[in-house]
## 1
Amino acid sequence: MVRVIIFLLLVYFVARAVWRLVYGIAEGLSGRRDPQSPSAVALARDPVCGTYVVPSRALTSGSGNDLHFFCSERCRQAWSKR
Ligand SMILES: [Zn+2]
């Protein structure tokens, strides 16, 4: 009887491990992407140093057609001093 219980426990743990593995692979194949990933965002070019920046995280100057994006406060100040 004890052997049967041990066998059932073993089956239970193996099944659980297999399920976790399958679940992990399925999750990987579903292709969930980080929505914050900058690779999917159109980049803006810093007119001072030429660095490409993510507009949502970059410093800005001006508005409308005169809107510029900067990688740092230093570049923004250099642009405003021109
Ligand atoms: Zn810059």
Note: The chain has a mean pLDDT of 88.
## 2
Amino acid sequence: MNPTVSSTSFYAQLKSDLLDCTDEMLSIENIRGCACEELQEKIRTNTFNLVVVGQFKRGKTSLINALLGAEILPVAVVPLTSIVTIMTWGEALRIKVCFNDERVSEIKPESLSDYVTEKGNPKNVKDVREVVLTYPSPYLKDGVRLIDTPGVGSIYEHNTDVAYQYLPKSDAALFLLSVDQPMSKAELHFLNDVKEYSNKIFFVLNKADYLRENDLREAIDFTRNALCEAMGSVVRLFPVSARLALEGTTSKSGEFIEKSMLPLFSKELNRFLMEEKGNVLLLSVTNNLLRSISQAKLELELELKSLTTPLEELKDKIRAFENKKGEVAQVKRDFEILLEGEVSRLAKGGLEDDLQRFVRDLMPQEQAHLTEQFELNKGLPLKGLRRALEEAIIGHVKQAFITWRALEDERLAKAFETICKRFISKINETVDELLRYSSELFSVAFDTVKAEALWSVKSGFYFRFKEQPVGTLVIASTLTLALPKFIGDKIILKKMQEYLQRVVTMQAARAGTDFEERLDKSKLDFRWEMFQKIDATIEGIASAIEKGMTQRSKGSREVEERKRLLAGTTGKLDEIKSRLARIKAEAEGASKG
Ligand SMILES: Nc1nc2c(ncn2[C@@H]2O[C@H](COP(=O)(O)OP(=O)(O)OP(=O)(O)O)[C@@H](O)[C@H]2O)c(=O)[nH]1
Ligand SMILES: [Mg+2]
């Protein structure tokens, strides 16, 4: 198959072949069901976040409409998008609004701008967390989620915060620039932050229709040079006109579409999605399946051996295997102690320090904001003033914590994953050693297959670092301030400063405890999964031998019957193995060329 003909269908084909293999494997008695089911689930549900970012008004929303080929999202000449909108695949256009308090409501397309724009939902008074939209676009096939973010750098600071919050979730970013605004310092600064969080950045120079050919070339050169310097490497820049592309699609004008230059970019994007998103996962799943097959084959051989080895000899071997189990138990105890130490170092050193630093930097900003709000509202009657200041403090602190938590989440998840990766390679060695030992002890063949843990494959598969729990951001609603009836301005400000301090301290304590708890739960899950890996290996070997022993006690006819059955299963496994090898070769071939 030629991957350049249609990379999406090539990927889809490999994926479906792989799913067929897993189905067949699940029907085989010797294959461990749960691992196989988990791999199947991974292929089916793998998502990839493609986040569109940039300064305000560069045409992010317009580009998304152009890629989808329909005017779905609202665009405007003034800073507009204020809420993250996530586009995923679905048979029809459907829109769900998810609120911060976990409510979800479905809305009509014509009401979308009442929720996602600064005009319809100023300062996010409606308390929307994100909007999720389904649409039948080929871009969204196979788990790609296209994400529109508010522009950064406009007078609406909260829009910048919302965009930043989403950066850690990006697997790849589309960084949008436009020809009418030469690249600015602020844009470079933002790019530096995007770099931290995305494995891959596409650079797109929009509104190419504004310029004639010579001017456009100059604009491209200028921008590309600035980007190369910022990135420290050669950068590919795609000039496009989102407007022409959309006009071309709606009026079915091939000429407009070609002039928009979008197809060139779109082709590159497709190729990338196939390779990075599709292939990396596909290869890793294939390797893991091959590993399962190799282990199942070893167990079959062991059973066969225990059907035929003289009984005394067999008993000696079983005793030797029991001793080996004792060694493995020691490895498990060492692992437990080391893991405990590493994770508590992360909680004490990493998390606590980060939190302290954050609060230290936050306080002066919040104080300044409070003073500003106080000056603005001091003409109000006491009750009104108090309410206005309370609301201002809570709104501002809450936003600061939401943004910090998203970033801290990413930092901790990454650090935790690094720890896990180190341990998992040790555990894998133990498992391999156990399998190799048994194969030598019983003189049967065994192929070692290296396979990465699936969660260590790109795309933010951090080892199931727990999701942020609901409700931890409903801050300070219980904290109210008792004020005397007659009171001077200065005293109110002082009281409000104390209130601010309490709100921040309380929220910081809550965030700290919550992170610690999640870290602890993630550690327990990880430990369980690693122990499970070892125990399942021991169990597989022991039960294969036991099955043989039981069978031979039934008599020679049963033994012959069982031998035939085992040979049949080995045949099936070999057949699936060669199909997996072909999928692996094709996926590897597609990655290279
Ligand atoms: N001429 C021209 N105008 C464009 C193009 N793409 C977008 N625009 C216009 O630029 C303005 C901003 O477009 P949006 O798509 O709302 O930009 P945005 O980056 O999403 O803006 P924010 O959400 O506010 O950050 C609108 O008036 C669009 O019509 C283009 O390719 N050519
Ligand atoms: Mg927008």
Note: The chain has three domains: 8-37+285-308+557-593, 48-260, 309-467+480-553.
## 3
Amino acid sequence: MYLQIKKHFNILITFRTIMAALFFMTWLIIGGGISCQSQEPSSSAPAVNEPTTTDEQPATPAVIEVTIEGFAFKPAEITIAAGSTVTWQNNDSVIHIVTAQDKLFDSGSLSNGNTFSYTFEQKGTFEYYCAVHPYMKGRVIIE
Ligand SMILES: [Cu+2]
């Protein structure tokens, strides 16, 4: 008789434990859902600001240096904002001439240490090469 009561008591305890666990899991799921929703507005607020700052960066004109070294333009391709100035410096011991494919600019003869600057006002892709060594090629992308 006593054993039977104890057995019933144990089943009741197990049932209560399962119900408590289920209730706790439901509370976790609902609680997690609420905390996710409450975090969304705060996390989306800086996300709106981030693209604004990255949009502003390319719009800022700058002065960019391209070195001429080892019969190559370094870097060979640059992407910059309209109004930016590119300064080429010849670090080779031979003469190089920075020439635009569309004849937009021409540096003339650049000996060692000489520089040439050009300001890009228009958006677009500008291909250039060295008139002395036409295999030397570069590109300026204005955004
Ligand atoms: Cu050259």
Note: The two ends are 89 Å apart (CA to CA).
## 4
Amino acid sequence: MPTSPRFWNLIAGRYARTPVADEAAYQHKLAATRHLLSPEMDVLEFGCGTGTTALHHAPFVRRYTGIDFAPKMIAIARGKATAAGQSNLSFEVARIEEWTAPDHSYDVILGMSILHLLDGKEAVLARVHRLLKPGGLFVSSTVCATDMPRIVTWILPVGSALGLLPLVRRFSDSDLVASHIDAGFVIKDRWRPGPGKAVFLVAQVP
Ligand SMILES: C[S@@+](CC[C@H](N)C(=O)[O-])C[C@H]1O[C@@H](n2cnc3c(N)ncnc32)[C@H](O)[C@@H]1O
């Protein structure tokens, strides 16, 4: 059964109000991504949440589309885009697994804090690869649960069973990199702010 947006709809308001857990790492990822963007680019971000990252990057590209399967997340994102008057930015309610755009539509695709939440990251990586133009870039930040302290790997499934946390798929940093390579990407950048932290990757379609 595909994962449900229920958890994310429930927490959308709180998610929007909660400060980023590691501001320094977030700023580093924003800067590293911004460095890859240019004004003629078309960008897709999936699992965009309440649109914070999209609002940072949209002013630097031609067109920026954020998608998320939780309507409450998208409602907040749309409100922020309207308030900012960012006319090249749009948000849609959609699952990445079902997002239909012609092959080679995008210069850059972002998937921030989402690959570990997917039923099948391999199928999504193959889809992302198809959606990118030759030379296109996939930027991601991913929790690699098997590299986290053992106590956290116990807490995650319990929190998920209680409905307090989303279901986090368990894989390692090296599994993540291997999945990208299997999908046909070349890894251009790999950065981890510290042990157990999310892995930031920039992968390129050759
Ligand atoms: C951890 S939040 C990350 C939000 C945002 N990218 C950020 O970094 O703050 C994960 C987001 O992915 C969305 N999501 C989870 N699975 C999805 C899927 N299959 N397709 C689209 N969105 C999904 C959730 O609704 C949620 O907003």
Note: The longest strand covers residues 132-142.
